[in-house]
Amino acid sequence: MTMQNPRPAIRTTCPYCGVGCGILATPDGAGGLAVAGDPDHPANLGRLCVKGSALGETVGLKGRLLAPQIDGRDAGWDEALDLVARRFSDCIASHGPDSVAFYVSGQLLTEDYYVANKLMKGFIGSANIDTNSRLCMASSVAGHRRAFGSDTVPGLYEDLEQADCVVLVGSNLAWCHPVLHQRLAAARESRGTKVVVVDPRRTATCDIADLHLPLAPGSDAVLFNLLLAEIDRRGLVTDRPDGLAEALATARATLPQATGLPHSALQQFLDLWCGSGRVVTVYSQGINQSDSGTDKVNAILNCHLATGRIGRPGTGPFSVTGQPNAMGGREVGGLSNMLACHLEIENPAHRDAVRKFWQAPRMAAKPGLKAVDMFRAVEDGRIKALWIICTNPAVSMPEADRVARAIAGCDFVVVSDMMARTDTTRLAHVLLPATGWGEKDGTVTNSERRISRQRRSLAAPGQARDDWRIIADVAARMGWADAFAWDSPGQVFAEHAALSGVAGALGGDFDISDHAGITGPQYDSLQPFLWPQSPRRKGGRFFGDGRFHTASGRARMVSVTPRLPQPAPGAWPFLLNTGRVRDHWHTMTRTGLSPRLSRHLAEPFLELHPADAARLGLRHADLAQVASPHRSAILRVLVTDRVAPGHPFAPIHWTNETASRARIDALVPGVVDPVSGQPASKSANVAIRPFKAEWYGFAVSTRPIQPACDYWARAVLPMGHQAELAGTDQPQDWTQTARTMLGMTGEPLAVHDPRKGIRRLAFIADGRLQAALFVAPHPVMLSRSHLIASLNAGCGGDILAGRPGADQPDAGALVCACFSIGMNTILHGIETQKLMTVEAIGRALGAGTNCGSCKPDLKNLLRTAAAGRTEAPVG
Questions:
Q1: In the chain, how long is the greatest CA-to-CA distance?
Q2: Mean pLDDT, the chain, whole residue set
Q3: Integer Cα distance of 700 and 719 in angstroms
Q4: Closest CA to 687 of 575, 566, 567, 609
């Protein structure tokens, strides 16, 4: 018997956050992948978070769009592309270029992004192309351009490991950028790096903080104005940027009370920042997603510019992006107010240079519509043809219901996507099947300006095609075949690199023209590199030489007058904060396919302060109705002092595919920063009240669960599916309801206690549990981990007890997703083995020894065990 040679690992890049981790993907020959961190990739050096580690569980055909569709029927590619080209061409001819728009995504590869931008801005002749990156980092772009004259990230990841003090502002690094969190935690352990977390909410990142500043929501600019005034008072101003005097005058007039911080904590922060020679300030969505996000960015940049703490090892402001290729999108002009290669659409010389390079027939002459305004234009009929690529705006945009209605009312909507059923694909006239991670070939740029290859490791399923190819084929049908006649993504990259040389000659920062002549084999073997890469400059940090991309060559400080969130109106007394959870990504079209990623936090929830909960009559695990002027949601209550009174928190990931009423961005108003156009997604005025359910339920089934009740939240399991349920009306026939919901036939085992209002039904075939439904007049208390483990396994009538027998351990709620280790297992180990540290838990049980994302949870369990009580893991 001969052994087949193992398939070689393919070096590629993770498709999640902006860290840009390198991955070794090994095909198994059956459509699956084994995934490991790439020890040679400089972003992660072999580390992966739990989402990256679970990528192999998210590939496959489940839910995939496998053929083009027109009005719900399968169609051929020629018919679909002809229709798209004809409808867009007719619209442009009848109503002008600004009557059409593209809405694209930070999850596209750079080559996809480049082709879309070229088609819209250079050939259609409109700048109505914007990206979901507008929702996460547009304020950073605007702040950079005001301060530096360019959208330049000055720092590198290694600065986190070389700094004396790292300040994290509005950045839950532990959950949103876990590998950077691991690098910072290691630096703190080895070098004694001081860590400050500035966040109204106590997040998992606070676990490594020497100081947590729970400042009043929205008061970030106040804090950094106070810091700038202190820098001046201590004589630490070393540089003289333009605007220094004006910025200092405003900073000196800022009052500290608005931060809501005690004087001692504020003083400790000022001492740490001013007293540390090397400081890095990392910021993310907590800064950007604000109606004054750009000003907050500039308040941070001001402090670094005034002290010269920028462009040198271990120093600088650092914007970390939320999406895998938000940076690549910025580089090719994916935002409606920019041109390719960081050139400015408002600059006639820049426009003319790009026009000549592309030989463009009708170059966009002005900025296009930013995301919120774009969908308003769809709503009022100014945009008549819309192409949505690789994103789900019917969930992720603010006022998401309004956006969904606008899309549904648009004359012609095209959606390119991997998945057949999303909240957005349901609204399309034409669906185009696109390749996804593992099937695509191109490049991405991470938050430190490092360009890496994402390589194909799986064949495209069905008729799926790469996005760049789909766009180029439409462009050819619109009459521009010669300008879009690439045969490979490598050729697109080479053109992009050549255009960057034009930008570099104009004084721009983005220049990778060393790769303009790249060949196919060179592209295939391209190693990760930092831009710029040109005859003028090779990688490294920017601005250490004191030269910036402004007309004067000096940096610009901006006088920032803080704008604080307005007090909530009486009818909407709470200010809702939104964000992400540890194990899910965006709208879960990928992570929702992984059973272990769905088990940590399996349903949408609302973090609510104990004082608020008591006043509202809500307890832990109750359901709450959260309403804004735009929409209401039903969420599971998590009572915790991790949030401040009046400032609840809810995650953004659930959609109409995964929950009944949990699209959080439908609650968020379409209020935007006036400079960047970025929505204020973290400050929605809401009202909260108990959801009065008549019954609550929990169900598992080997078949997809189809609930028909007021509240439900679904998740996948290793052997099937689960659902949390609640309703305001009792079904007349619970047995038939269970059959319909769980996809079962036959008679179930059943228990009914009318006095307690309890019903339990289990469908068993050949001694194996096929489905079960547990119903109670209050939130159902049972061992979910036991039922999940029992699904499709041998069982008896005792399954209706809902708990394992005395001789069977109950693992409890999942804590360590890498090794599927539950809370009860860890608590038992702490008690019986006298485990006193996270490291001891790792040695004994394995928890926390892989990606490390659960280490804050482990520390919380150590604390709660020592206090003799058990709480939900830290969120």
A1: 82
A2: 94
A3: 10
A4: 575
